[in-house]
Write a structure and sequence with these properties.
By secondary structure, the chain is an alpha/beta fold. It has two helices and five strands. 27% of the residues are buried.
Amino acid sequence: MEVVKGIRGAITVPENSGEAIERQTKKLLAEIMAKNNLQKEKIISIFFTATPDLNAQFPATAARKAGLTEIPLLCAQEMDVPGSLKKVIRVLILTYLPENQKVQHLYLEGAKVLRPDC
């Protein structure tokens, strides 16, 4: 039996450029999809946030370029909390997975500090 599960992830971006945002978004999505054995057809939606210092491109644009064209995507700006990690893209993927499958949240590069348990 399959149920809806949420998978979280984040990655830092070295600079505020469209190329860097696209590269890091694609990397984050590819690794989450591989680690969780995700199938595009079972993904319900993907929600991205980016810190205010990343505004050169929408992470959803990178997802579309990576072939996720039939999935509802949404981008929003992350809260600007003083002292928080900068240049971060976060993602929440809602997908159908087998009920007994444990999800693997992925925090890459500098974003590892956000979830040291992952």
